[in-house]
Amino acid sequence: MNRSGLTGIHIYGGHRSLPGARGGARRVREYLLISLTAAVVTYLLTPAVRLFAVRFGAMTEVRDRDVHAIPTPRLGGLAMFGGMVAALVVAAQLPEMRKVFLSSDTGRALLLSGGLIVLIGVADDRWGVDALTKFAGQVAAAGLLIMNGVQLLWLPTRSGEVLSLPPAYGVPLTVFIVVATINAVNFVDGLDGLAAGVVGIAAMASFSYAYLISATNGLRTLTGAALITAILMGMCAGFLAHNFNPARIFMGDTGSMLIGLMLSASTIMLTGQFDTAIVGSYNLFPAFVPLLLVPAVITVPFIDMSLAVWRRTNQGRSPFAPDKQHLHHRLLELGHSHRRAVLIMYFWVGLLASCMVGLSFVRSMALVFGVIGAVAVAGVVGMVAVPRLRASREAAPAQVPAEQPRQPV
Predict the structure, then answer these.
(1) Cα–Cα distances in angstroms (integers) from residue 259 to residues 5, 270, 285, in the given order
(2) CB 133 within 8 A of CB 63
(3) Residue 203 has pLDDT above 70, yes or no
(4) For residues 57 and 126, is the Cβ–Cβ distance under 8 A?
């Protein structure tokens, strides 16, 4: 079966053809350059976008359940989109990375679908768009990805075979993954820097998986999925410099839908990118990582959402009614600062992502789970103990030095 397909990723029939050290180093440098370009351009564009958002009237008002205290401009996704475009332009000029554009329509897929989703996000950030219109726009963006070759063509199975997906199944499944990922990222955007950091960690894990699984099994390390995740890492890093607490600008739906779209595109392009026969002597878990990675990194906010729906329903309220009992609100009530609450979320997301990637390359599952379990226990102890230790230190009476007797003059 020819697996170059619509994703533009070619499989070398199971034999190993590792690239030379010089070629591999050059490709790594090109990926770093692309990621750095996205980060720098996003960082430099964000102040200008902030001024535009203020004059355009795209401001986030303070609500009872919010943690920010002053109206904050949004539309930060415009700067992120500019970083993506700049990175694609640079990538098209690089000698090695140009091969990705020649073998697939990755660049055009990102520009068309990302441009549409940004337009919808701008309208929502400024005037507000109803849920049905946003859903239709997300489906249309997924359709543009499919038209340009970003589509699920097959799925791995436990037997080691691949399940071919005809358009009647592949198209709706692709649309579902895109829409679900976009809305999951939108839900994560609850604290300053949370969405950008979580997606950045997910992109870093996806890039590590995409590059290492290709290099380890003798496949092409130049893939559209690795390109997308490299750009996404840079975009999130560049914007996070302005969005970390105290945030000077929010990404808004413009940014959350854009990075969710890119994350879903990388997931789709990574799925089924290599022949499961070449890892049959080890295990088939690496074949399922692309489909499991994104759900893993959003496990914590998904559990938070599920608990919120259950809590509100038991109280006789609408499941969509706002409250201040989300996970980040509870971390703040526990005594953590805003920044520390976000860093705690980073920690758990990074731990889950590391576990997924580690299971793909470390043969001993007991070793991976042992290390992850030890780190998790330490994280729980620190999460509970740090605010208590800080509170005890602040409550301790200050030691006032005894007054020295005055000496006669």
Answers:
(1) 25, 16, 26
(2) no
(3) yes
(4) yes
Average pLDDT, integer, range 115-137? 93
> Chain-wide mean pLDDT for the chain?
80
Total Cβ atoms within 10 A of residue 90 = 18
pLDDT digits (tens, 9 = 90+) for 287-312: 677 778 877 777 776 677 667 767 77
Residues 107, 113, 116, 121: is their CA dihedral positive or negative?
A: negative
Length of the chain: 409
Residue with tokens 């729980």: 380
Local confidence band at 83 (pLDDT 50, 70, 90 cut-offs): very high
Backbone dihedral angles phi then psi of residue 162, each to the nearest 5 degrees: -115, 140
**Least confident segment among 87-91, 156-160, 167-171, 311-315:** 156-160
Candidates 363, 21, 356, 32; CA nearest to 215 is 21
Question: Which residue, among 249, 141, 158, 136, has the nearest Cα to 195 in the 3D structure?
Answer: 249
Hunting for tokens 């895109």 — which residue is that?
178
Is 235 within 8 Å of 39 (Cβ atoms)? yes
Q: For helices 327-334 and 299-314, give the axis angle rounded to 10 degrees.
A: 90
| Tokens 């109206």 sit on residue | 71
In angstroms, the Cα distances linking 393 to 89, 104, 255, 343, 383 are 53, 59, 40, 22, 17
pTM: 0.83
The residues, ordered by sequence, that sit 6+ positions from 84 with a Cβ below 8 Å of its Cβ are: 38, 110, 114, 231, 235, 258, 262
- Residue 281: which pLDDT band, with cuts at 50, 70 and 90? very low
The full DSSP string for 381-406 is HHHHHHHHHHHHHHHSPP-PPPPPPP
Classify the phi-psi angles of 150: left when phi > 0, otherwise alpha if psi is within -120 to 50, otherwise beta. Answer: beta
